[in-house]
Amino acid sequence: MTDRVENILRDYFTENAFKPGDQLPNEFEMAQKLNVSRNVVREALSRLRMLGMVESRPRRGMVMAQPDLLAGLEKVLNPLLLSQDDLKDVFELRLVLELGVSEILFARKTPEDMAELEEIAERQKGLAVLTKEDEIEFHGKLYDMTGNETLHRFQSMLAPVFDHVFAAYYNKTSKSSKLEQVTHYDLFKVLKEGTAAQFRTAMYNHLAVYIDSASSR
Amino acid sequence: MTDRVENILRDYFTENAFKPGDQLPNEFEMAQKLNVSRNVVREALSRLRMLGMVESRPRRGMVMAQPDLLAGLEKVLNPLLLSQDDLKDVFELRLVLELGVSEILFARKTPEDMAELEEIAERQKGLAVLTKEDEIEFHGKLYDMTGNETLHRFQSMLAPVFDHVFAAYYNKTSKSSKLEQVTHYDLFKVLKEGTAAQFRTAMYNHLAVYIDSASSR
């Protein structure tokens, strides 16, 4: 029942072209119009509030709001709950993003960003083993450089699932030397002096051990 | 208050390593344990039910479930509600996916899939103008070929926002001849006879008009 009312409400908002900030009818009016109980309306609105689609304003009641694109996804990216297929899909999704982001990086990189990336890559050159935090620092900086907030947040949400899948299924295969052939520092150099196409190739080689795992599933 | 209880419940499930199928305490027990009203618990559970994290089973009450990864995102991908920044982020996200998917396509393509793709590309060669449906048919088949259900559904969810952004902001610039240089049929040929790297380049040229728009924002 709540599912139905939630769908009806979303359709109603779309059909009436409600925009963020627009005043919504109150719970009582909605319940009457839809001929359902106020409890059901309250539950459906609570769901929409979770997604950021509606919010309560003091003395104005409920208004339409700008939803949080990734709020729903963020809540379910729990390795313990997802199916094996979903976990592998998410694993691949991160690889696809890393490989696809090259053009935007080349279009947007600034000297300031490159200086910061160099500092990270330079520092990591001295480390025998890179931790998860090191990986996140370098790759996170790349996403930061895209200027695409959604992409940045999306990939950082995928990271724990990615690590979980890699640890669970693929870690038995020796982390081949392929992975070491292209380092973070190498990636930095290509981003600085190469082309978008060269960077895509370098990123492919950097991620080769993961891509091989994914392709052979 | 419901936000807080929703978070507490999710943390509680994680800390106790609840897996899909596991029986959950009933509303009454949860309300007592958290010292909140049953209405608040019911609202929080309704949110989790929307995400597919919990479900009601006849005679068993509430059990843990396998969440629907993209359910939350799907509900908010409404061009009328998203901010301009979010819209542009989603526009780019689709481009990133199209460019990044090459390796997986080459690893997974089958003769049957290629025959189907050829049939589509061959038929579209005869058309003067490609409609949205034609675009979806060709690019959707590519995602279908990845065998990654999440990626496939994700990109088809992004399509309406992508079209909205392109129509609203970029259609004034003449659809340059670049777009025509690499056709769906050309993409098919490269996928059949070329390499993953060549396909990435061909896809880049196919999407050049969009990528130019995105880069210059």
Description:
The structure is a homodimer of 217-residue chains. Chain A is mostly helical and 217 residues long. The first copy, chain A, has 2 domains: 2-64, Winged helix-like DNA-binding domain superfamily/Winged helix DNA-binding domain (Arc Repressor Mutant, subunit A, Orthogonal Bundle); 71-215, Four Helix Bundle (Hemerythrin (Met), subunit A) (Up-down Bundle), CATH 1.20.120. Helix content of chain A is 69%, strand content 4%. Chain A contains 13 helices and 2 strands; from the N terminus they run H-H-H-E-E-H-H-H-H-H-H-H-H-H-H. Chain A has helices spanning 2-15, 27-34, 38-50, 71-76, 84-100, 102-108, 111-125, 132-145, 149-170, 178-181, 184-193, 196-206, 208-215; strands at 54-57, 61-64. A two-stranded antiparallel ribbon of chain A has the order 1-2. In chain A, strand 1 (54-57) and strand 2 (61-64) form a beta hairpin. The longest helix of chain A has 22 residues, at 149-170. The radius of gyration of chain A is 23 Å and the shape is elongated. The mean pLDDT of chain A is 88. At the A-B interface, helix 1, helix 3, helix 4, helix 5 and helix 6 of A face helix 1, helix 3, helix 4, helix 5 and helix 6 of B.
Label this structure with key terms.
homodimer; 217 residues; mainly alpha; Arc Repressor Mutant, subunit A; Four Helix Bundle (Hemerythrin (Met), subunit A); 2 domains; two-stranded antiparallel sheet; 2 strands; 4% strand; Tscrpt_reg_HTH_GntR (chains A, B); WH-like_DNA-bd_sf (chains A, B); DNA binding (chains A, B)
